[in-house]
User: What shape does this take?
Amino acid sequence: MTLISLKDIYKIYHVGGEEVRALDGIDLEIGENEYLAVMGPSGSGKSTLMNMIGCLDTPTDGIYEFEGEMVQVMDDTQLASIRNRKIGFVFQTFNLLPKATAHHNVEIPLVYANIRKEKRMRMASDALESVGLADRMYHKPNELSGGQRQRVAIARALVNNPSILLADEPTGNLDSKSGQEIMGILDLLHGKGNTIILVTHEDDIAKHAHRTIRLFDGKITEDIERGF
Amino acid sequence: MFTLFIENFRISLSAVFANKTRSILTALGIIIGVLSVTLMGTLISGLNKSFEDSMSWLGKDILHISRYQWFSDMEWWEVKNRPRMLPGYVEKIKKRSKYALAVAPVMQRGASLSYREKKTQTEIFGTNEEYMETISTNIAQGRFFTQNEDRSGSRITVIGDGIKEAFFGNQNPIGQYIKIDNVKFRVIGVLEKQGEFLGLFSVDKQAILPFGAYKRIFSRRGWMRLSVKVPEDKIDKSIDEIYSVMRHIRGLKPSEKNNFAINQTKIFEDQYNTLKMTIGGTGVFITLLSLVVGGIGIMNIMFVSVKERTREIGVRKAIGATKGMIMCQFLMEAVTICLIAGLIGLFFAYISSLFINKIFPSTLPVGLSISAVILSMVVGVVSGMIPSYRAANLDPIDSLRYE
Assistant: This one.
């Protein structure tokens, strides 16, 4: 089943009178339980594509359907709801709230989903346990290592059981050992049935994915599927 | 919704307490605003209370005839040039006026009182047996003097509760002798305790003497006024009548101006209302000023807070916060600062009111306190509006990239 369908997507910025085509006619379909790596040099439009898929950005032109529904026509509340329930973000710089504990960080999406306190506590604890942080739940981000912080971020992305996990250079700020641990978790999640979209410029990382697309100047130049 | 409300409140509190100094400095305007409005209220409530007490002591139905018009800007020499009030007027007024229910001449001066070793400085009044009708106080112990005692110049006195306390404590003062400026007087009665007049001075420290004895011993020609009791429902008519009676007594021609004045406690009321308006107006002005300044401070600090937390806003949006939720979060933060400021202001106002209460009886008005705190929250909403709106409409992608 197709989860995400991008048809002839353009994203055009005007910077000082000059036209910048961040996305230049993208056609892409992503199905359920795919493991996709998006590669390309910087400025090729990887992040723009990610933001587009994650409903943080809207295309200048083209049609984006998420689970068969047109994203362009959605209002702020509907978009927020998709981001909250259907998509989990994992960022390169973790983006945890520094003053909140790991547990509270994981709890926030559930607050926006309007879930009751007891249930929220339990769900957040479960998510943290699933990424192996049962003993670090009440530490603040600055008391955790980079790998641990990224695991908190993954727990936060997972806690609402989204269908898609969007990871933007998830290992970019980590040493290789922590990076491998994080990739291990992503592999595991994929095994459990999640769809994972990964932005990276490292071939080692991209190898974990089953399908790789390459972007250059806002266009898809390569779309390779590898059977496993 | 409730979940979010609690969460937002938690965020607000932690944001406020994470920057304690900043929050307090920001909140200062609101604190001062709430403090000034509640203190003003306390002051006015206190004034109201003591004013009402004092007014009931003075009595609305009592006219005071003297040379001087209260609260007027008459020159002193003009007053001095007017003829004195004479004791003889008492009988004349009684005879001519149909409204006058009681007429008492009142002379007054300072004197030193002593009983054995105890001494005190106080006001003494010389008056007639109708005096009790013109004041609202009753005799607590003993009796007032009679017309005969007045006419015969008996050296007897009725003392205020304050004098009784000072000299006799729990002992029975009736029949005891006290010295007034070294002349012996026998105590025949004690007045009820009355408290303080306008919170300024106690009227309990006084001694009342029969007019006859007073004149003979202290002064024949002192300052004197006449207190006239009139029916409460015919005060205006009575004033007109007393004017014409007095003009007749003075033998004034129709073309001549009054050379006396009839004073009424209503004048106090007018004066008092002016005073109240002044205090109230000043208080409202200070309050509004500090609330506006405070509001601008809050707005400013909220802009800073939004700027500082741009990345947080981006993250929150990415994980599912709507514009409305972000707006709520920051509005609530502004309101929380103002609420805490309001409560701090109220706390200081309460402490101050306890202090003020020692000077004159007053209480912090509850309704006003609640309104003041609500008002400070309104300031929070108003001044937090624009920064919160800005936060809500930040672009999530830009915010996530913000360093």
Summary: The CA atoms of residues 110 and 323 of chain B lie 76 Å apart. Chain B has a mean pLDDT of 88. The two ends of chain B are 31 Å apart (CA to CA). The interface with chain A takes residues 1, 3-4, 6-7, 14, 18, 311-312, 314-325, 396-397, 400 of chain B (CB under 8 Å).
